[in-house]
Amino acid sequence: MHLTEEQILKLAPDAASEKAGKGLASPTKWVLREYSERALWGHCQGSGKNPYQTQIDLQNIAFKCSCPSRKFPCKHGLGLLLLHASHPELFHRMEEPEWVKTWLEKRSENAEKKEKRAQEKAHKPVDEKARQRRVNERIRKVNDGVEELQIRLKDILRNGLLNIPEKIYTLAPEMRRRLIDAQAPGLAAMVSELMTIDFESEVWKYDLTDALSRIYLLAESYKHIDTLTPEWQEEVKSLIGFTQAKEEILSGTPVADTWMVLYVHEEKQDKITVQYHWLYGKSSGRYALYLQFLAPGVVPEVTLLPGSFISAEMYFYPGVSSQRVLFKQYTVSQDVFAPQACASVAGAMAVFRETVTRNPFVTKMPVIVAYLRLTQQGDELHAMDTDKHTVLLHLTEKARTQLLLITGGKPFAAFLFADAKRWSIKAIWVEQHYHILDNEDDE
Question: What phi and psi, each to the nearest 5 degrees, are found at residue 81?
């Protein structure tokens, strides 16, 4: 696996670990530096008598160290991986010592046990009567919540929109709490997004009307769900907040491919950390979104690095143009490829319009554009293609500085999210090198 310093530092749990890891990326810190096809290991001499034993699973990035740190990965794991990325010639290929081999075998055994438990759960007899009672009770609650939501939305429209900026921070939390109680978390999240509207802008009334219309449309679609196609039924239920058992998803037909990890992002949702992993399939040409939910103190089961490549069978959730996936396992791939890209801003906009026409609940779309330049128009930044077509950008000052330093003002390809108003660049390619931008502060 060929990793850059930028990719590795994305794994650091905090700024202090990042700094300490860089400090340990020196051959003088390591009295042992060795590797095999599936692992990397070393001895780092600390203040104690015995050096710390540090090991890294290269097939499914994971770390283990004998140091007392409670951070994951610790500074030793980061330092060892950084050193290998910058100076692989300093490492000797050797047979895995017993302490490394035992750890890798245990990880493999745990993965097999997890798969076995999943299969046993999938074949475990289900009390259908009890299950149906729970389903019926959930449906009743959701129906009541949707009915009450539509009444509230109609009241908002009858009273007019001009006073909404003052009332939204009271109205939205009230509606959200009621929808959470009604077991409709998807609708609750859409209501919460009303508070993110920029009511200082001149177009806030259009943004508010658009958001309210989308919420009402989803509520109305759910009330008439029996009239929809199976594909749309799954889409609406998913948007409302109904979940599907992993076993059901993993029983479907997978899409086997080599996938590039385009982007990884974390968000705090109450006490849970949600990791978003965006990937692109070489042969399928499909975007895939893998979500990982982490309670406080829980170590991620899967570590995917932006700019890396994996081979995996992806199981897509049902729905209209669904992108969310699950997978059972993956292996690191050496099959490096460049994703297919739209040739122009106009081409990407056409894809966005087609996507929204097919599914009006889409608010942003992942897309790769092959050739862009930054251009300033008044106080706002735009991306411009070779045909001089431009689109408004969301770009933080830090991301803008990064982009200019990396590109030097030259053209670049970009992975971004497009919506009807502006694009948000997440990563760029410059001379075949992939760079992640820090473009998250106000999203």
Answer: -70, -40
58: which residues sit within 8 A by CB, 6+ positions away?
1, 35, 37, 38, 39, 40, 332
The DSSP call for residue 196 is: G
pLDDT digits (tens, 9 = 90+) for 380-427: 899 999 999 999 999 999 999 999 999 998 999 999 999 888 899 999
Q: Which CATH number fits domain 345-436: 2.40.50, 3.30.410, 1.10.3210, 3.30.2420?
A: 2.40.50
Calculate the dihedral angle through the C-alpha atoms of 274, 279, 285, 286, rounding to the nearest 10 degrees. -10
Q: Which CATH number fits domain 246-332: 1.25.10, 2.40.50, 1.10.10, 1.10.3470?
A: 2.40.50
Q: Which residue has the tokens 């039924």?
A: 233
> Rounded distance, CA 154 to CA 159, Å?
9
Per-residue pLDDT at 442: 45
Q: Which residue is associated with the tokens 């300093």?
A: 90
* DSSP result, 295-349: -TTPPPS----TT-EEEEEEEEPSSTT--EEE-S-EEE-----PPP-BSSHHHHH
pLDDT in tens, 252-305: 999 999 999 999 998 887 778 899 999 999 999 999 999 999 887 677 888 888
Interatomic CA distance for residues 440 and 264, integer angstroms: 11
Q: Is the pTM for the entire model greater than 0.85?
A: no
Both tokens assigned to 61: 């990035």
